[in-house]
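Work Package 3 (structural annotation) set out to generate three-dimensional models for the target panel prioritized at the project kickoff. During this period the team completed the workflow that converts sequence records into discrete structure tokens, so that structures can be stored uniformly alongside our sequence database. As a representative example, we reproduce one entry of 369 residues exactly as it appears in the project archive.
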Amino acid sequence: MKVGDYFTAHSIVSHTIVALVAAAACWIWFGTQKELAMKQETKKFKIALFKSENVFYHQKSADGFLESFESLKTGSTEICDYTVSSFDPIIIRQVGHALLDDNPDVIVSFGATLSQSVISLVRAKEIKTPIVFVGVSQPVELGFVKSLTSSGNNVTGTATMNEKTTDPFDLLRYLKPDLKSILLPYCSSVMGGRSADAIEQVQSYFKRYNIEVYPLPVESIGNVLKLVAGLISKCDTLMYLEGDMVGDAHTGLARLCQKHRKTFFPLELEAMEGGAALAYGVWPAFTGKVAAQYVGKILYDKVHPSDLPVAFLEDSRKLMINKDHISEQGLNLDPLLIKFLEKSTLYKNDNNEKKISSSVGSGCEFRVS
């Protein structure tokens, strides 16, 4: 064999080996990618819904979540309910621990109380499970997130009210022009409570119109009805702020108002089910639908919760009027006005004055039930 032939043969063998090695590498790479893709397709995600069985808002929000998420989910996704029977802190922590022991991929917590609890447990265990809270009005003040634009942690969710808005107060004065005094119960504890600033803002607003606001601090849901019953005769209207734990007693509060012929004006639509004559807020199912969109982004698009700003739902608020309880709760609304409001929207004119229009404006929608 000539030297040239030897090098030619050697070159052919070398190229053949290189080609075989490259082919094997490609086969291994494609096989790995296929395996990863199959694992991704077959990965079973677990979503934990942390809610109360006795709170209308939680149930309706969860219904909205499930309806919306059904159109988003891919592959196999298990949705598990972790439901508390009461707001006893011991029961809440027990259910919260059971939830974390099941190692969900995402936690969806409803309301300030349960969100506060599960966030505290996750932080205590130093785990990074994503949490999406639903219907919390003060996530920054409660320490859930650093800001509404970026949480800086594993938490995000939906906020349902701008604490500085005066729209519900304007509406109350419009519908009850003889308003003189308001009893304002609020949870004074950190869990589910209100900041002093929020209460002062309400007092400051009504003071301009010579309307007295009497804050009533409540330490637990167990004594809210007793405290309100002792003072309700001194006021003509009972109101509580959105997201406050006091709202869990809305049915009992509505009965007290009917008994004493006082106007009940909660800033949560769920209280309509409990017998409120008026209510202002976001319909719960909508907050659940927005939360479902966030869970989809976290699970399927791999978006970190800190990159999802808190969804602020201020533009989705409604005023609802319950015709069956108007007279029982000391409201004297003209029947023609009620009929007109059924197809009307409230808006602000150029002088920032509240007006009623038969066309759609930029304010909140009226619904009469």
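The first helix runs from residue 3 to 42.
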